[in-house]
Amino acid sequence: MTNEVTVPLLPCASIDDIVAFYRVLGFSTTYKQRKPNPYVALQREDLHLHFFELAGFDPENSYGSCLVLTSDIAELHRAFAAGMRAAYGKVLVSGMPRMTRPRARKNADGLGGFSIIDPGGNWIRVVQDAATPPTPAPTPAGRLAKALANAIVLADSKGDVRQAVRILDSALARPQADDDPATHVEVLVYRAELAMVLRDEETATEMLARVKRITLNAEETRRAAPAFETAADLAASLP
Fold it and tell me: What is the pLDDT along the chain (239 residues), one digit of tens a residue?
């Protein structure tokens, strides 16, 4: 047999909330029912996601997850980000729903990936299709880069935000003269992002303020550009 298709079936508290959110990301509804059980089928090109509603379901305690394989992580992230900015005026980087930024992951041979955490608490994990792998990112060098790589695995892959925070805080507490400024910006912005996930707006504000105090040359500014974009989205989420 060939051409089989597997479609994930994920839980949620409200299929209406799910439809509203995924519409922002460019999905259309291909099927929806209220009885006998609330159920909805969504599609965006070749990407299919189905959801069922459970009374009393708590998205904060969801274990729902699936993988999305794509040949172009960056392009899909840009499309989702554009939808969010059009609907919300910013990319949702905190709370639920939210979307992480593509980052190289050492537990995926240095290939990039990002996740969408939807209103049902489901983790839609977008990863590189092994059939069309890009050149993996170089192995992180330096104390801050290694701490960042470890934190990304814990928070973005495993969802262990608090342990990732401990790793970043330990690295930031021991500044060294040879720390790469662009990586320092990445660490501070990621720490601010994790603070927002934990609803710690005070720490997020502090980290973003520290970013502004780092001096960068032109090449370092170029490398830190994605982090600055995330910082702007985070700042827009702060009161």
Answer: 677 888 999 999 999 999 999 999 999 999 999 999 999 999 999 999 999 999 999 999 999 999 999 888 889 999 999 999 999 988 898 889 999 988 876 655 556 789 999 999 999 999 887 666 555 555 556 889 999 999 998 998 888 999 999 999 999 998 888 889 999 999 999 999 999 989 999 999 999 999 999 999 999 999 999 899 889 989 988 88
Q: Is the full-model pTM beyond 0.85?
A: no
Q: Delimit the CATH 3.10.180.10 region(s) of the chain.
A: 9-128
Give the C-alpha distances (Å, rounded to integers) separating 85 from 24, 118, 132, 195, 237. 9, 16, 29, 21, 12
Of 151, 124, 25, the C-alpha closest to 70 is 124
CATH number of the 143-237 domain:
1.25.40
CATH code for residues 9-128:
3.10.180.10
